Structure formats: structure tokens, C-alpha cells
């Protein structure tokens, strides 16, 4: 039995999970953290308050230069990093803001992944290198104004007209929509659901931005309107038909959320811990009171469990053994617990918890959206319920 002296206790990593990461994984994490500290953190509260990101295209190019756009994909200018490295990047991005992680997730795990996995060679060579560099921005059109958790009932339709396709319909709550150069749009056809690569300059395509959000304000969210959008035969994704296509993309994005939500939790927890050590009531810091310590311990415990789960799922994804139901397990748990961590952190900060001088209320509001998108709590519960019992309860 070894009797060496253990390292000092780290309040930010109480279980010593850093020991489970490789040097390369830590390097990826640290490089993303450094970019966010310089390029995002000083400005993001102002972006959130104003509901806009200054120079979003410039930020996209910086993220592309760092290699995080489509970073877990191979070839075509993509970095070819591991799933775990991608997860760690998502955690750091969302520690700054969920909207920044959403920009990266939609670009890489939805739009780029759809083209990379299901596209033609021509589509890949045309779009992926520019998207990996941040020179072209993508969006992903699946959700519709009246169709959310049941994408098989989508009303957007694509019909053949000679050799061309003509698309009509609307998509809703589309991240990056108003700034996108290309949209991956899913539509009903006579042969089932198909995906289309739609340059946003195509006549009949428009993407009005959605206003009056109180969540994900540092993120571009749009409606997509397709009014007789005519596309050549080569615009269709040739390698997939049916819901398998969009659901495979959603699974990639959900994996990023498993990690990303923990970033918002970590940021809020660290803010609460710092505040509790500085805020004095009844003659001593509030961190010295039992009820406050109970909150901090419970939050640290749930964050640690969530990070261990994310790391385990990342290792499974890198080994090729990760199942979609396991991604649902991670998304359901980690977003739910991260939101509770943000809410509890807000109570420690008291009235200051609602001020954008601190990150907590911003993270809390953002996670209300993260809780819903890429599959609601109800949908992931039913996915797991079916997997556990063998009985479908969707209908």
C-alpha cells in the first residue's frame, strides 16, 4: 500500500477528476478556457442584456482558428479530436454562456455533422472546410412553429419539379438562422423525410430573427421561411431517408449538452462559493453558516456526479459503444441538476443573484432553454422509460 501524501484538496474539483484526463484533453480544455476568458467573458453580460453578440462572424473565425468548429469530425479541415475533448470544449464554452456553446454545437454537431455524415462528396468539399474555419456559418432546420417533439409530423415539404426540388414551409427556434450562409433543412417528400443543403442566398429563403427572448439572449435565434425555394438535384443529402438523419444529428448535439450544461453549473457554483466567502452577515462570512454550507456541498456533489457521468459517456463515445439512450440519460440528468445548481446559487447571492454583475441569473435563464431544446425532459424520460421497461409510452 502506498503511503505518499495526497495532493491538496481542490474545492473546484473535490473528487480529483482532473486526474482522469490526459495531457491532450487538459490542453484542449485550457485553450478553450483561455479564448473564452479573453474574447467572451468580459463582454457576454452586455451581449446578453442587449440581446446581440458583437462581431459574431469574427468570433466564429476565432473559434474556427482554434479548431473547435466540427472538432470531433475527421477530414475536410476538421480537427479530428476525440468526443471527450469536444465535451470538455463544450463545458468551457458554456461556462462563459450557453449561447456561445449553442453557436458551436449547431455549427459542428448539427449542420456540419449532417453534411459530413449524410452528404455527397461535392457537398462536403463545398461547405465543410469553410465551416470548420468559421468562414461560413450553418444552421439546422427541423423544429417548426407547431411541430416540436414529433418531427415526423413536420409540414415543410419538398416536391420534385423536373430535376429540381422546390421547398415550402417554416422552421422555428433556429440557432444561427439569421447569420447563416447555409441551412440544413429537413422536409417531407414522396420518399419520406429528406435533408437539403440550402444556401441562404437562394431566392425564397428568409430568416427573420426572433426577438423578446429572456433566455439565450447572447445567441442568434430565428425563424426560417421557405417560399418556393428552388434547389438543384444535388442539394439533397443522398445518404439518408427518414428520421434517422435528423435524429442522428440531434444525438451529436445532445452529447455536447451533457457536458455544456455543467459549464453553466460550474460558473454559478464558483460565483456562489466566492460570494459566500466575502459576504458578511451577523459578524461572519455566510459560508460559515450550516445552511449555506449544505447548499454548497450539495451543489458540489451534483456537479461532481454529473461530470463523472459526462466523462464516462465521453469514453464510451470514443470507444464506439455509446447508445442514444445513454445520451438521453446524460442530457436529462445533467441539465436538470445544472439548472438546480444555478437556482440554488442564486439564493446564496440573494438580491445580487438577479444582477448581471454576476453570471448566475444569466446561466439560470439560459438553462431554461437548454432544458427544452434537443429533446424535452418529457421526451428523454420516455426514451429511458421505453429502454428500461421495453414498453413505449409515447402515444
In short:
With about 400 residues, the protein is an alpha+beta fold. About 50% of the residues lie in helices and about 15% in strands.
What is the overall pLDDT average? 97
How much helicity do the residues have? Answer: 40-55%
pLDDT below 50 for ≥5 consecutive residues: which ranges?
Answer: none
In the CATH hierarchy, what is the architecture of the largest domain at level 2? Up-down Bundle
What share of the residues does DSSP label as strand, in percent? 5-15%
By CATH, the superfamily of the largest domain comes out as Butyryl-CoA Dehydrogenase, subunit A, domain 3
* H and E string: HHHHHHEEEEEEEHEEHHHH
- Count of discrete structural domains: 3
Q: What global shape is seen?
A: globular
CATH topology of the largest domain: Butyryl-CoA Dehydrogenase, subunit A, domain 3
The CATH class assignment of the largest domain is Mainly Alpha
Question: What class, by secondary structure content?
Answer: alpha+beta
> How many helical stretches?
11
Q: For the largest beta sheet, what order do the strands appear in spatially? A: 2-3-7-6
Overall number of strands: 9
Domain Acyl-CoA dehydrogenase/oxidase C-terminal: 241-388
Keywords: FAD, Flavoprotein, Oxidoreductase, Transit peptide
GO molecular function: fatty-acyl-CoA binding; flavin adenine dinucleotide binding; glutaryl-CoA dehydrogenase activity
Organism: Intrasporangium oryzae NRRL B-24470
